[in-house]
Structures are given as C-alpha cells and as structure tokens.
Amino acid sequence: MAKLVVSFEVNGVATDVLTEPNRSLLEVLRDSLELTGTKEGCGTGDCGACTVLLDGRPVTSCLLLAPEAEGRRVTTVEGLARHGKLHPVQQTFVEQGGLQCGICTPGMIMSAVALLERNPQPSEDEIRYAIAGNLCRCTGYDKIVRAVEAAAGRVRESQGVDAESVEAK
Amino acid sequence: MAIVDRPETTTAPQTDAPPQRLVIGQRVAKIEGVDKVIGKAQYGADVSRPGMLWGKLLPSPYANATIKSIDTSRARAIPGVYAVLTGEDLPRVVGQVSDTAPAPDEFDVPSRGKQLLAWKKAVFYGQPVAAVAALTPALAEEALAAIEVEYDVHQPVLDVLDAMGEGAPLVQEGVFTETFAGKDERASNVAKLTELSRGDVAAGFAAADEVVEQTFRTAMVHQGYIEPQATLAEYGPDGRFTIWTSTQGQFGVRSGVAGFLKIPPRRVRVVAMEIGGGFGAKGAQTLEPICAVLAFAAGRPVKMQLSRSEVLRATRPAPDAVMHVKLGARRDGEITAVEARFIWDVGAYPGGGSTGGINTGFGPWRLPNFHIEGLDVLTNRPSIGAYRAPNGPQGAFAVEGALNILADRLGLDAVELRLKNAVVEGDRNPSEVPYPRIGLRQVLETVQGHPAWTEPVPAPSRPGWLRGRGMGVGTWGGGVGTSTAHVNINEDGSAVMVTGAVDLAGTRTTMAQIVAEELQIPYERVAASQPDTDTAPFNNPTGGSRITYSLGTAVHRAAVDARTQLKQRAAQQLKAPPDEVEYRQGQFWVRSDPDQSLTLAQVARAAIGSGDGPVIGTGEVTHLLRAPAFAAQVIEVEVDQETGLVQVVKATAVQDVGCAINPTACEGQIQGGVVQAIGWALTEEYVYDDHGRLRNPSLLDYRMPTALDAPNIECVLVEVPAADGPYGVRGTGEVPIVPGPAAIAAAVYDAVGARVNQLPVSGERVLDALAEGGSGMAAVPALSSFPVRSAADIARQAVLRSQAAPPAGGEKLAVESEDYCAEDDA
Amino acid sequence: MRGFAYHAPQSLAEAVQILSREGDGGKVLAGGTDLLIQVKERGFVPRYVVSLRNVPDARAVGFDARRGLRIGAGARLSEVAAHPVVQERYPILVQGASLVGSLQIQNLGTVVGNLCNAAPSADCAPPLVALGASARIVGAGGERTVLLEDFFAGPGRTVLEPGELVAEVLVPAPEGRSGGAYERFTPRQEMDIAVVGVGSVLTLGEGDRCLAARICLGAVAPTPVRATHAERVLIGQELTAERVAAAGAAAAAQARPISDQRGSASYRTRLVEVLTRRTLMAAWQDARG
C-alpha cells in the first residue's frame, strides 16, 4: 500500500507524517508521533477516550482517517498546558476529584475545553450534553460536572467577565 | 433531562469523636492527578519496546465446536509473521521455557487459566483459538485470516436452567458437582452446589404471618472499564520475562505467569502500568501468559491490546443469575424463615463462587432459620470474573426486592422493616462468620432521618411521566490479604512511600495522607512510588475493597516505624533518653528542656551518614479482622408511562466508610458505584442469539450510562470505626454498587405500580409488567427436579460405598470463596 | 486492517472519473465515521477510497426560496444542525442531525453519509423523507435526482449504481403553514441508536385542516418507510387529538418491525404508535406557529 505524507499542525507545531492511508489519526498520534496522551477505549467512536480537537472542534480521532487531517489543526491533551501552566479545566479536574483511573480524562478534558470555548457559562445540562460522548466508568460523572463548572468560572475570570455581567446580558 | 437537585455532601454524626487530625479527612488532590490531566501517565497500551511485534488472537466464531483441524502453514509463511501458536503448541513451548518434558495431559482440564487457547474444542463464542505475533497489527491480522480452522459445530447450551436439565449436553466433560461432602461422580454442568442452613425452616415459616415468594433474574453484564486489556512481554537472554501490563495486581501476574510457564517467580518481572479501570476484571490474567508465550516463541518483545469487541466477547463478565427467594415474617416485620436458591451462570469454565452473592444478599439481615442453596452452572458463555462486590448486586436485587415486597404487603416503612432485622455486632452472616463492630443500624437511622426519605416524593418534572422512590441496602464483607510498605525518609525530612500495590483510583493519595499524618508533615512532602515486582515489597492484588484497609495498615505501620526510628535518632543526637524526646510537626525536643531541639530535616540529614544509616520504616500485615461495610441508597426515578422508559433523577447514598481519609475519594467511589448500578439496572446486558453469538459487542449497543443518564448523587458518609485497621477505616469501593438495582426496581413500582423482577428494567419490561400485573416469571423449579445431588445425597452415597468421607468444613469453603478476587484457575 | 488506495480529487467530476476508472470495490469518503467502523468491526475493506475533502463547495449548505435547501455531500452533521436557515426553517432536521452518535461524531460525520450508510435507524432519514427531500446523484452516465423515500434499498444498500455518488441532498422549501418533528426512542439519552425513530411533517390549511402529512418511520423495516395509512387518516381532515391518536394507531398497524438486540418487534410496534402520535402533536403545534 502506497504511503503518503500528511502535513498538519499538532499542538501548534507543523508536522509531517509518512503513513499508510488506512491508519486513523489516533494511530498516527500514538504510534508515529508518540503522543500517547490520547487514549483508545473502543476504536469505534462510542466512548470518546480518543477525543481531540480538529480545528477547535472535538472529534473522535479513532474514526478519522489520517490523510483527512491534511492541512488541519489538531490539539491533543498534551497541547493544553501553556508554559507549564495547566489549562483551567485540567486544574479543576485535579482539584475537584474529576478523575479516578484517568483513562477517559484526556478525552473528557478535550470535550470540556471545546464546550467552554464556545460557551463559558454552561448550565449543568449543557455540560452533561457536551460530555455525553465521553464514557467514564469510575466517577459517576458527578465530580466531572463540578470540575467543568469550576473551570467555567475560572475561564470567565481570566476573560475578565464575571458571572453577574454575563447573566445581566 | 431531569436533574432535579443539587445536593451538598454531608457527614453524619460520628460515633467516637476522633482525635485532632492533620491530613486524614482532608480533600487533598490526587498525587498523580497532574500526570493524568496532561496525558503523561502511562497505561498498558502506552509502552513500547525496540523491535516490538504485535500479538493478536484468533476468536472462535462458534460457542460450542470441536476443532477438527487447524492449518497454520499459510499464516507462518507470511513474511513478518514471527509466531503462530495453537492450543496444541502450548505444552511444547512451556516445556521449552521451563526445561521440562511437555505435559499435554495437564492442559486437558476444564481450566480457563490452562486453556489460554482452546483445547480441542471451543466452548464460548470469541474464545481464542490461535495466537500470532507479527511486525505490524495489519500483518498480524493478515496472519489470523490465513489460519484455517475446521470446526464440528454443536448446539450450545446458553441458559442455566436448560444446562441443569436432565440430558443437557455437557459444556465440559470433566466437571463434577462439588459440594461440602465432596464431588459427585457423574459429570454435570452444575460445577458447584453450596448449601447453607440454620435453625428449623419449617417451623420458621409456620410462625410467619406473611410469606413472599418471588423469582428474580439478572443479565450477564460487563465491568466496562474504558481501557481494554493491554500487555507487553519481553524475554531476555538472561532467561527472564519482563511484562508491562494493565493489571490490578503485579504480584498476581508474576505468580500466574510463572505458574503457567512452570518457572520460578524470580524469572518474571512485572511492571504494573497505570490502570484504566478494572473493577475486578483485571485481577484475572487475560493477556499476560499468552503474551509471554508469544514473546518467547517469537524471540522478540510482543505487545497485545484487546479490541473493545474482544473485551466484551471474551474477557470475564459478571454472571447472570436466576434467584428464587421465599421469605417469611411476622406482622411486625421480623423475619422468621428464608428459603432461597441462587443459580449462577458461570460460563464455560468452573469458578466464580456462589456464596459471595448469598452472603452479600442476606448478610445484612438476622435470619433465625434458613436454607439457602447456591449453584454454579456451566453454559457456553465466557467464564465469569469478579465485578465490584462480586455477585453482590444480583443477590441484593433478589433479597432487597423480596424485602421491599414484604414491606408493601405488611404496610411497613421499608427502612423500618430493615431496622427490625438489621444485624449488629455479634450476629453471624449466612456462612456463620460473626460480625465485628458494624454500622448498618447507623446507616439505616441516617436514612430514616434524611429528607431524601422523609420528604414527599416531588411531582414529576415532565407531563406524561410518573415519579417514584425506592430504597435498598447492600453490604460487602471487606477484603483482607497481605500488604507490605516501606517509608523512606529523605535527607530533607520528606518521605517516599514505596508499595507494590496497584492504584485503581486513589490509593497513592490516601496512603500518602496516612504517611503525612503519622509523620506530621505536609501531604505535599510525601511522594508515592509503586515500582515493579523486583523492587517493590509484596502486595496482594487490589480488589475487594481491601487496599485502604489492608495496605493502609501496612503503610500506617511503616510510617509509625519510621517515626519511632526518627525519634531514636533524635534522642541520640540530643543525647537524651528516647522517652524524653517529644515530636510534633517536624520538631523534636527534650521534654525537660524544650530549647534542646532539632528539626525533622536535621535528624534525617544526620541519619544519612550515621552508623545506623538512613531511616526506612517498614510495615507488613496479613491478618486483620474483616471490616464489613454497609450502605443504603434512596433512588428516585421517573417513568414514561407510554414507553416504560425509566430514568434515574435523584440518588442519595448513605454509607459507613469507617473513617473518610479523603472524603472526595470516598464520594468518588460511591458515585461511580451508583452509576454502574444504574447501568446494570436499566440498560446493560449481554444479548446472545440462538447460536451463542454475542449480538452487542460494542459500546454503542452495550449501553453504559452517559453523563446524561446519571443523576446528581448525594453522598452521606457515616463513620462507625472498624474494629481493626488504621483510624477505623473500612473499604468503600464495593458496597455502593450493591443496593442500586433493587432500589431502582422499587422506585419503578412506586412510580407506576409495575413490579419488574428482571434486569435490566427496560421500557418493554415495565410495559409488560403493567399489562400482566406481575413479574411474568415462572418460579425456579425445585432442586429435586434437576439431576443435581445435594451434599447430603453425596455423603449418603459415599457412606453406602463404605468410603469414609466425612463432610468437609463448610464454613471454611464458604469464607474462601467469599474472597475478593476473580478465582483465576491458573 | 488491510490496505486500500486513497484518492482525494479536486472536484466531483474528478471523483466520478476515479470511480468509473477504478471500478468495483470503491468507497466514497465524506466524514468517514461509518467506513472506519465497517473496516474495524465487520472486516469490510474497500479496495480504494475517494475522499471528498478537497472538493470545493462539498461542505456547502445553501438555501433559496425556490429550490429550497441544498446540503452538500461533505456538510458535517454539526454544521447542518447549526446552520441558521436549517434552524429557522427545518427544525425537524436539527432534531435528527443532532442525535446521530455524539458531538464528536457530528463534527466528523455528514448528513449525506448518514443517508448513504443506509442504516434503517439513521436519524437523518425520517426527517428528510418526511420533508420530501431528494438526492442529486452524479455518475459517469450523468446526473439524476431520486426522492429519498426511493433511495434506500435495504440495510446498508441504496439505489446508487457503481460509480455514482450523492452530490447533494435537496430539501423543498416548507410550504405555507407547515411544521415537523422528529423523535426517537433510545434506552440511553445520548450515544445510542434509535430503537424506533419517527419524523412527521404536517401542512395546515384553514384552521386545523390538514392539507398534507408525511410521516416516516425509522428502524422498523429494512429501510426508512412512509407510514402511508397514518397519513391518509390525517390528510384533508380537521386535526384533533383523537385523529392524531388514530394516525398513531394506523402507523403501528402498518409497521412490520423485527426483533433484535435493540428491541422486540412488539415493543417497536408500541413505540411507533407513541412516537407517531407525539411527533404529530409537535408538528401540529409547530405548524400553528
């Protein structure tokens, strides 16, 4: 099978990968780029453990053929912390007990980050909907929801928007 | 969606006021939390080795088929394929590894641990028939496709009641019913019959004013860990195997692999990777032995990773059960007699233990008279394994279900009825094991006074839906076992805790809290290390809620030992007698002259170069009293009247945790257990077709709850200190999954009046139950109608044959099988 | 996974050329979510795939009052569901598209792919069939337009001939006072597959007189099917709750579902009755505005 070069941006870095066309983005990330933070739980898009951001939107990387990522911007869990500082979602997951075994955590965090980017003040229902494609078997989701709520507060703070003024709008 | 309340966690009043504590009871963050949120934590599938091959397994397409022939020649001929093995090859490879003569007869036994690859016949759908190792996953798959297997296909036995019937085809030829009185001499699909009795059952029922008699069924379900099993094995020129794997117990893997390969444990080094959920399943060795065999045969490191369909088809799910319960009680609710029969579908190989479900189901209640039977029955399904409080949720579904019906019939409050019959210290469980100090009564009293139980059921949140409330109780006997720990004191007075335990969901953190507490240093000054089996002190696998309790004891002892040694060193340095030296929060001083003082760091630094050397505290534990835990849950559901769909909208979980070392971790365990129970109760089940093929081997059709299917879960932590172990702590992990299914079924009945005695409580079953006005399930036929011989029958036979065979000690057998781990027959 | 050749043409015409040149065993790739599942779980491996990712305008979603809505072959489910025109004029399609898989799947998968995969349970099918949508199909022999209700041939099969692909889906502009609703039954609230899905579109004349009714049932037959008996109960009649209930009963009487791991035939029949009634009530309300 003829290999081809896929050029895309991974966590802000322009990257070229030589790959067979039948490999998934997940396989390329994990096996070729050694970015093993993105996990595989099912391989069929049903658990969300492999969630990454593609041009800012959450996708299951196990279902995306690697060549389809050509020219796209991919963000994995390894690309969230900046200059050694955790993303607010990462921070609150640790603080609030939003993780146990941690295998769903990278995908869960990517879904939560994507949610907060378009909606910094989500309701509980909106949070649960945003992570409904990410199965977690340890936490019962309760503390994950609390962690996302807390992260939303921090994202708003960092954007200089307090809760009241958002509500007033 | 209906998320109704936003409860706060509360803590119920404590029995004994605890001493002032520094770190115990604090909601500290997980020690490894940052590694997990930045993607740095390494799990089973994240490790690679130079020159690594990929291993894969060929699944049987049939549930019951004789293997007439296997031709692997085409697969072997593919360039890049390094090993192709079938069951027949295993004795030879084991002989080569261990330098012993091949012993094929040893493989011809009904043991899944021996039959890593099907031996002459495949006994369940998806059972591995061959294994390959090749340069790439794609090549490995090509090799699998090139293996030609000729099968002689037979009709599978898929239902436990069918399997017990006269003339049922035998799943295994070499299985004979095991009873307390020995084994039957006729082969049977009934692998084990457990009989537990007390008192005079007939008299007990004669004294009853009300008798409830019901049959309950549950479905085969899966633990549902998100990380599929993954293992990497390497064989070195020194004759040693190194195994990186996702496991609940690295020492268990070491003994399992060494045992299978007939080599001493020193030839096996196991590295437990970060584990992505286990819930009991990863106490069994699914991949490690076959991966080691492949690595040896291929002469290269081999990595294996199950696909999700393999996980669902061919690991070790939890058994389905058919349970018949007859309960007699006086008008005031006091139970007078119990008769019960629990039939467990243990799949294609013996093992799984039927007493666990009996002791978990009936354990909370005082039973003056009972006769309870448990049967392990073979079918052509995957053999079962441990899943969180193994067999407890099934047992409780039946017992709590019967109690809820009894309460309704007697017009008693469900909690009141339970308080009437609750066991207390000194009472015995069905296996006659006495209870030490327990907190069931306190748990029930907490529920009795909690708004979740006392407030009226709110109106439904949507038109067309009805709302109801139900409750259930659960217990878990508690896990014990051997644990060891080291606490190394660094030259700056900080500490490194070293254990050989696997951290499923917070062990390192709570253990570090114990070390910090005992050394009276900040939690941040404690590091946790869990090195491989060569380096770490021994530890039994993580499971059965034993870790915080048993390992906690070992860690506590190690920390106290370190503190004691430090005090001695301080005394030497201060030139004072040790009993004159005081210590508090990093400061040593002489009691009579407080100006004479040293910091912990000074003492630790001086110790490094001293004659006595650095301080290493050690702690070990094997014998502890079990610390049974009890929980009660109140669950509210809403039911769509037209479709029967059930949604859980509120859950309140009250649990005796003994001592909450880290309340956040306790709540996390409880909330996770509640949601697993919701899946078990409402949406999860193995669906087989008539040929024994699993119809739903994906996470789309095997429906585990999503965030939208889970309610907010209020946790109420009750702290009745355990009699043994540090700070009175009890294991928290198992119990929270036990009460849910029964509580949900009761809530459905409360909402719409449909009594569904079969899991899952699907919309269809709710509508059917409403239409029929009953559970629609036939009672389980009496044992005498099956060709199964009781222990008494077998003992009688034995006497007739004049073979002196006195009945073996029943209690011992029962206690053993109650134990925590999947009984891996390896 | 065995290998396949990968083509990424610059235009639909080029895609058609590749399909006719390479012949059998090809697969057109839009989102790719179903393809990779088929490869992994069912061992189906195409000989080659033709990706539409480089085709300009494949992802377009457009509307004009005369021709209605056009959904390009590459338009993602999430893009279609979020499109202002779709939100305003085709809420029933928003309901369907936003139920497929998870958000992650909706960001990859396409409306056209959901149709071409031809699962009887596809959530986009009942809404689009009920809306009277059609597929514009291009191939080496030219172009043709097929009503969606005639597009499905069986589970996983469509009327697409070898070498053909769906260029876009055309949805007529809603007429006068019309409204629609899609509802499905699943045991879980998300990440599930319809046990039954029903899409209903109603057009009202004066008052509550029903001028037109189109009802499509998913997951109760080898293909999405129109509930013609139920439609006849409504068309030309004054709508009442009783008449809507009668339509639900007619739909259930006409449906011939099977039993499988997702639900039994008898339960599915009951669900058809309930969901037909519920979607008709919602469509009626929507039409009244």
Detailed description of the structure:
- The complex is a heterotrimer of chains A (169), B (826) and C (289).
- Chain A has 169 residues and is α+β, with helices and mostly antiparallel strands.
- Chain A is built from six helices and five strands.
- In chain A, strand 3 and strand 4 (57-60) form a beta hairpin.
- Chain B has 826 residues and is α+β, with helices and mostly antiparallel strands.
- Chain B is 28% helix and 23% strand.
- Chain B is built from 22 helices and 29 strands.
- In chain B, helix 10 packs parallel to helix 11 (392-410).
- Chain B starts with 9 loop residues before the first strand and ends in a 9-residue tail after the last helix.
- Mean pLDDT of chain B is 92; it is low at 1-18 and 802-826.
- In chain C, the strands form four sheets. Chain C has a five-stranded antiparallel sheet with strand order 4-5-10-6-7. Chain C has a four-stranded antiparallel sheet with strand order 11-12-13-14.
- Chain C has helices at 12-22, 33-42, 77-82, 84-89, 91-97, 103-106, 111-116, 125-130, 228-234, 241-254, 265-288, and strands at residues 5-7, 26-29, 48-51, 61-64, 68-72, 134-139, 142-147, 152-154, 157-158, 165-171, 177-185, 196-204, 210-218, 225-226.
- Chain C starts with a strand and ends with a helix.
- Chain C has eleven helices and 14 strands.
- In chain C, helix 9 runs antiparallel to helix 10.
- Chain C has 289 residues and is of the alpha+beta class.
- Classes of the chains: A alpha+beta (169), B alpha+beta (826), C alpha+beta (289).
- Chain B binds chain C through residues 1, 137-138, 141-142, 307, 309, 642-643, 645, 647, 682-683, 687, 695-696, 698, 700-701, 703, 705-706, 708-709, 762-764, 767, and chain C through 1-3, 40-41, 185, 187-193, 260-264, 267, 270-271, 274.
Secondary-structure blueprint:
The complex is a heterotrimer of chains A (169), B (826) and C (289).
Chain A: E1 4-10, E2 13-19, H1 25-32, E3 51-54, E4 57-60, E5 73-75, H2 88-95, H3 105-118, H4 124-130, H5 142-158, H6 163-168
Parallel strand pairs in A: 1-5
Antiparallel strand pairs in A: 1-2, 3-4, 3-5
Helix pairs in contact in A: 2-5
Chain B: E1 10-11, H1 33-37, E2 53-59, E3 65-71, H2 73-76, E4 81-86, H3 90-98, E5 121-122, E6 128-134, H4 137-146, E7 148-153, H5 160-164, E8 176-179, E9 182-187, E10 190-198, H6 201-206, E11 210-218, E12 230-235, E13 241-245, H7 250-261, E14 268-272, H8 288-298, E15 302-305, H9 308-314, E16 321-329, E17 335-347, H10 355-362, E18 370-378, H11 392-410, H12 414-421, H13 440-448, H14 451-454, E19 465-476, E20 483-489, E21 495-499, H15 507-519, E22 526-529, H16 547-574, E23 581-584, E24 587-590, E25 593-599, H17 600-609, E26 616-621, E27 629-640, E28 646-656, H18 663-682, E29 713-718, H19 740-752, H20 763-772, H21 791-800, H22 810-817
Parallel strand pairs in B: 1-29, 2-15, 13-14, 17-18, 21-22, 28-29
Antiparallel strand pairs in B: 2-6, 3-5, 3-7, 4-6, 8-9, 10-18, 11-16, 12-13, 12-15, 16-17, 19-27, 20-21, 20-26, 23-24, 24-25, 27-28
Chain C: E1 5-7, H1 12-22, E2 26-29, H2 33-42, E3 48-51, E4 61-64, E5 68-72, H3 77-82, H4 84-89, H5 91-97, H6 103-106, H7 111-116, H8 125-130, E6 134-139, E7 142-147, E8 152-154, E9 157-158, E10 165-171, E11 177-185, E12 196-204, E13 210-218, E14 225-226, H9 228-234, H10 241-254, H11 265-288
Parallel strand pairs in C: 1-3, 2-3
Antiparallel strand pairs in C: 4-5, 5-10, 6-7, 6-10, 8-9, 11-12, 12-13, 13-14
